[in-house]
# Entry
Amino acid sequence: MAQLTPNTWQTIEQQTAALAASTLKGYTTQAVQDGKEFLASTESQTAGWLAQVAAGAITPDNFASLVRGQASLAQMTALKQAGLAQVAIDSFVNGFISIVITAAIASIP
# Structure
């Protein structure tokens, strides 16, 4: 089964921090924490789908749809506890999911 490599995790974390810094000023730490928690809770499924893309069983577009479907699992607890508005959290989640998809697809050799 394919896994998200340490390099992929690092790329996602760096891009998540940059996204948070530009869209959630003052909430970068919470956003990165929530992103890590989401990835940890969905890594097994994401890695399985990534393996299917690598094997040609599903397309990258199918992978993207599956990962986007996991967005509802993104609790973003730290951002909510910090008092950030739901609209801002939803916008961040959409950008974060795009980062995860792009980094994961790019990690396929």
About this structure: The chain has one domain: 6-106.
